[in-house]
């Protein structure tokens, strides 16, 4: 082996340095290889790119579906029925001797400015008042003289009882006050006629039937048949004596007055519950205004 002489390297030292120099390019190549093997940080894998494209397509699909949902909401709004477009369904109730004005109720399930008006001919009070009028006319023609002032008074009282029921029923759509007043006028007219028949019997010393007598009970039973018609009593009115006909009239007038009393009570309850035309006008206007505001929104 050669040593160090005179400050110069020996051949052995030179050989070691040469080996080190040859090893350095090899390390540099290894570093380049490591750099090439590292994945690029800014370039995502193909799978991630495909997932991003799929997410973008889903977002676009959702955007396209939004107008469709909006159009469906508009369609649903257009299909909603208007609350005031259809009148409430009304049914005609049957009239009994204790409930003679139910078809003229002003408080229906849905408030209306003008309530439905029933047919006054279905009212038992009107039917009986018509029988009373015809009976009174026949009675006066048979048993009272042509020049007797009582004839006009009795016929006019019987006619007033019938006609005011008609007028009150028609006026009830716009004025409960008028209907109540006219119904009460009909009641008062028939009470006047009732007194005329009683006077006819008393001044002639004829009997007035007791309300529980068999004759009065029989007449009341005849009056229970509906619809009530003058034909039911025609034979008695045109063939029986004045005493019998007058007592039949008294029985029928008492029945009619009872029905009118019940009718007035019913009208009073209806008015207290639903009010008159002015209150219905206010309620109808407020409801129409609220509906207009909802449509505007």
Structure description:
With 297 residues, the chain is mostly helical. The protein has a domain of 176 residues. The longest helix is centred in the first third of the chain and has 34 residues. The radius of gyration is 52 Å and the shape is elongated. It starts with 10 loop residues before the first helix and ends with a helix.
Would you tell me the overall average pLDDT?
74
- Our estimate of the beta-strand percent is under 5%
**Which spans of ≥5 residues are poorly predicted at pLDDT below 50?**
1-7, 74-110
The chain-level structural class is: mainly alpha
Q: Give the helices and strands as they follow along the chain.
A: HHHHHHHHH
Number of H- or I-type helical stretches: 9
Rg measurement, Å: 52 Å
Give the helix level as a range of percent: 55-70%
Q: Kindly report how far apart the N and C termini lie.
A: 109 Å
Please give the number of β-strands: 0
Specify the overall morphology.
elongated
Topology:
Layout lengths: L10 H27 L8 H34 L44 H20 L5 H23 L4 H28 L10 H10 L7 H9 L2 H33 L2 H20 L1
Structural descriptors:
297 residues, mainly alpha, 9 helices, elongated, disordered N terminus
Give a summary of the structure in a few sentences:
With 297 residues, the protein is mainly α. 69% of the residues lie in helices and 0% in strands. The protein starts with 10 loop residues before the first helix and ends with a helix.
């Amino acid at each position: 082996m050669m040593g160090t002489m005179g400050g110069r390297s020996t051949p052995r030292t030179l050989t070691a340095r040469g080996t080190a120099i040859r090893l350095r390019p090899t390390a540099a190549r290894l570093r380049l290889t490591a750099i090439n093997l590292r994945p690029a940080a800014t370039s995502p894998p193909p799978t991630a790119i495909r997932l991003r494209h799929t997410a973008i397509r889903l977002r676009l699909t959702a955007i396209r579906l939004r107008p469709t949902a909006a159009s469906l909401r508009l369609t649903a709004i257009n299909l909603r029925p208007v609350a005031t477009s259809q009148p409430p369904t009304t049914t005609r109730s049957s009239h009994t001797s204790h409930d003679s004005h139910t078809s003229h109720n002003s408080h229906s399930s849905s408030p209306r400015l003008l309530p439905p008006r029933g047919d006054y001919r279905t009212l038992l009070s009107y039917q009986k008042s018509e029988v009373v009028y015809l009976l009174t006319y026949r009675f006066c023609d048979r048993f009272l003289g042509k020049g007797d002032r009582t004839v006009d008074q009795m016929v006019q009282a019987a006619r007033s009882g019938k006609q005011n029921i008609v007028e009150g029923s028609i006026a009830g759509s716009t004025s409960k006050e008028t209907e109540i007043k006219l119904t009460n006028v009909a009641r008062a007219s028939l009470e006047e006629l009732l007194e005329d028949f009683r006077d006819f019997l008393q001044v002639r010393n004829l009997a007035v039937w007791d309300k529980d007598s068999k004759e009065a009970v029989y007449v009341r039973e005849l009056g229970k048949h509906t619809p009530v018609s003058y034909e039911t009593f025609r034979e008695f009115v045109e063939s029986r004596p004045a005493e019998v006909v007058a007592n039949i009239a008294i029985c029928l007038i008492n029945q009619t007055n009872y029905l009118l009393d019940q009718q007035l009570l019913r009208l009073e309850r209806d008015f207290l519950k639903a009010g008159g035309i002015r209150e219905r006008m206010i309620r109808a206007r407020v409801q129409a205004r609220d509906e207009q505001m909802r449509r505007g929104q």
